[in-house]
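Can't paste images in this forum, so I'm doing it all in text. The chain is below; anyone willing to post the predicted C-alpha cells underneath?
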Amino acid sequence: MKIYGDSQSGNCYKIQLVTSFLKIPYDWVELNIKNGETQTDSFLKLNPNGKIPILVLDDGKVIAESNAILHFLAEGSFLLPKDTYLKAKVLEWQFFEQYSHEPYIAVARFIQHYLGIPEERREEYNSKQKGGHKALKVMEQQLEKTPFFVGDKITIADISLFAYTHVADQGGFDLSNYPHILSWIKRIQSMELFYPMKFV
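Text version of the structure:
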C-alpha cells in the first residue's frame, strides 16, 4: 500500500507512527503542502478534498482523514480495544483531538514553524494560544489519572494526540506546566518500535 503525506505534518506522522508500532510495510509518497502538491489533478482524483494523509490500498481503494486511517490500520491490534465502551473512549479522544486540540495547537505550529509568524497572521496566532492551553489542561487532567488516555495501555487515541502535542513548542506552547503530559510523551518515545518525527 501507499501512504501520501508530508513528513512535517502531524496528521501524516500519526500514520508513520502506527505503521511502525504495528510493523506494517508501505511505500511513502512525499508531498509538499506549501508547493501545492496536494492540489494537482492527479492527487485530487485520489482525494477531492485535496488533503493528506491518504492511504491507497493495493486494490486502489483510498482512505482519507488521519484518524480514519488509524482505525483501519489498528483494527484487531493492541492499539484498538475490542471492548465497545473503550473503543468509544478512543473515538471520544480522537474527536477531541480534531475539534478542540488540532485547530489550535497544529494551526499555531503551522503559523510559527512553517510561516515564521507573518505580521498578517500574528493576531490569529495569538488567538490560538488560549484554545491550545485549554486542550492541554484537559489532557493533563486525564493523564494525572491514567498513564494513557484510555487506561493503562497505549491506543490510537494516544497516537492521535501525541503527533502535534510533542511538537507543541513549535507553536509557542510551553509544556513545562504540564508534567503529566511530559511524562506521557517520554513514555511513548521510550516504547519499542517508536518512530521519531522527521524535521527538515
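The longest helix spans residues 84-114. The mean pLDDT is 96.
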